[in-house]
## 1
Amino acid sequence: MPTTKSADRPLQIGLIGFGCVGQGLYDILEKLPELNAHIRRIAVKNPTKARPLPHDRFDFHADDLLQDPELDILVEVIDDPTEAFRLVSTALRQGRRIVTANKAMVARHLTELVALQREFGGTLLYEAAVCGSIPIVRTLDAYFSHEPLESVSGIFNGSSNYVLSRMTEEGSDYTPALAEAQALGFAETDPTLDMAAFDPRSKATILAAHAYGLLLEPEQVLNLGIENVTAQDIRYAAALGQKIKVVASLQKLPDGRVTAFVTPQFVAATAPLYTVEREFNGVVLEATYAGTQFLSGCGAGGHPTGSAVLADLVALRAGLRYSYAKLTTTEKSTYTTDLEVEVYVRRPDEDASNLLTFSTISQDNPAEGYAVGYVSLAQLLRHRDALRRSGTFVARTGKIRLLQAKANTISETAALTV
């Protein structure tokens, strides 16, 4: 545990990782000396990699920073979720204060991380793990800690949004749009986490805890991506006056239960997310009493994400910690996948058509290879990997139908205002 320091002493920070976010934070703090916050030690993995600071500024064993009592706060910004959890959990067992930007780690281990904070008195903040510069975690945890939410939805991944924007603007197919995103640094060499919607699934899992008090495993949340999207699908949406966006949705159903999914979705021109383009993110909150709130901003990048880390550093200095109010409320939310969603499905061949069974069909166009109708969320969860492998593209219309087994009826809800 770091020793208690005087208020006028510079905040001593230990930085673990010096990639895009780590360098962004370092640059921000160098340009804001009035914050009185100093990165005292930086731990990196590779001692031979060329870096923009002198070699003697770096440590090469992150555990050394965990054992340094002079460091007031640790910042973990590495890309390995397993190692990140080892470091963060060790720091919490020491009762330390720590900031992380690792969304996959937080989503996978949130139950344990909450328990460690309660047992050992440490504090973990992770605003930078969700939507870059948009302060969505703090907004949910502080400002909507006790107000019921009807839905939380948004574009949580800038890489896939960039690809879809370019396809819409140029009328191009997926491959050249992805190559452009990779060339500009908006998409990784291996784009799977972003394009297959694993990244926004992690973020939705994290927000479920703050919005509804649900501690979910990431696999419980449906994730369908855009690897199989084509110019034909973009044109189909445009003919409806809509765009295709990858939308993460957390929604309270008419019976009070909550569901979640991350998929491509048709977004109408009247919806807030319609105007969120390229690498930007956007979040729409539907609160029971406050109404609709819309937040947008840069979802990635060194300075935008570094600014979220900075906000957490300032918050830790002021003694802030997450309340997790909805985890402790007596009225617990219940998670469900017992519903049907209306989807547009374009199949590359007849074999792919056997993966999904429509309960009702509103459009069927064999010549163009697509159909629109309702399928169960359970089917989509069960076949999500097979759908990806088969080349099938699936996009939600936004409409859902809740299966009410006791009455043996189906209750339909309108599309989300995204």
## 2
Amino acid sequence: MRYVGIDPSTKTGFVALDEEGQVQRAKELTGIGDIDPKRITTLVGEVIAHIKPGDFIAVEGFSYNSQGRGIGFQFGIGYAIRIALYSRNIPYIEVSPGQLKKFATGKGNTPKDKMPSPIQENWGFTDRSDNVLDAYVLARCVQAYKNFDGMLFRLTDYQREVIETIISPQPKSKPKKKKKAK
């Protein structure tokens, strides 16, 4: 059994932890070439090739505030990975970018450049790639999710809040209907 974090991006972070939380695999996956859909197809193939039966997986949710040229690719690879997992009956949980940041730092709006230090302080893990760092936190999230009762007292208050929200998400409130003017 492993806990796997996947951070879908142009360079997709992949981290697998063993049952004790030790890193078994930490790498950036890129696919082949720079022309889509070949790059997306080969990148999804790389991700799926690294997954083993019995893995518990967390995938980072979409960043709806992102901008720039790579945003289309990020949505494409994000959906392609989810479709590949779904079509193979491989369950996964989704962790929003804010939940990932809060689980690592206590704040859901932490800038990317402020993430490495808390990750090293909390778990002793470092990597040059922010994609691998995110994947590492995702793997820690799914580990806590799957072992929540047993890890309850080892998690910080903010980590418990994140996992509780993933376990029991709050329903989104429906917008109130506007009254028509007479």
